[in-house]
């Protein structure tokens, strides 16, 4: 009996040690809602109403694996695989990539890490916390989708210095789905992306700053770069959090100066009860040298059924002025040219 007890104890100790050295986590989100839009073009181009199921309205639907191995001396090997999908159809997201939301491996210490692979850009991770809706479908992303961009073929450093976080990213070709999108011999600027980010959060007040530069994805456009500088601030006071954000955008080519713009947004989040929260925000794009300056408003109500499941109602109104053509989901074909648009989404989200 003593021998069996010793063997059982030893097995338990070995299992505990193995668990401490290596950890693998399966995680995911399924977010699906019913969206209703007005002023969408029908087959003849006339204004019509559209009703459809839509995925990833608050959080992108995804599943993934992440893990780490203890290498000793405070050093760990880490990896992250995250697959985005459309929960209304089951199709892979991010242009059909298997792990389009992230795929990287690296080394991490107590306060520093270096990773290689597909990563969020610096705008995504360092400006996202300053959008009141958390970069939901109707948010600052409506005005600029690159605020939640990702980069293939990236090397990224992340550091934590007490209340200060910082990051730096270099991509050899941010869109590997393009035939000649990067990593071309003799043309290192094709598809190159650079980014840096800082966030300081000592308490109720938090600040974020991020810079991103993307070069063209062809031999002809490699010398042209889109530059974005964004900043955000938030302040928490009891059950209310206030937000403000700004993004400056300019291409380096004078021939493309008409695309330059300033984007402003702000809003409030109110935690009415532990389970129910409300958000109100507005965003405005000032297109430099043009009167085409769209304005959007968004309202979001979220009710948590549990720690993992939530119901939500998200609504937005896009006001187009001076010839702008912005829908509640962005600058795309889902709005009749010159019209304003209203969108409403009712959905459910579950985390696992």
TrEMBL record:
Pfam families noted in UniProt: Porin_4
Keyword Transport in annotation: yes
Domain of life of the source: Bacteria
Annotated keywords: Cell outer membrane, Ion transport, Membrane, Porin, Signal, Transmembrane, Transmembrane beta strand, Transport
CDD domains in the cross-refs: gram_neg_porins
UniProt domain Porin: residue ranges: 8-322
Signal peptide: 1-20
Ion transport recorded as keyword: yes
Membrane topology: Multi-pass membrane protein
Cellular location(s): Cell outer membrane
Record text on subunit structure and interactions: Homotrimer.
Protein name in the entry: Gram-negative porin family protein
Species of the source: Collimonas pratensis
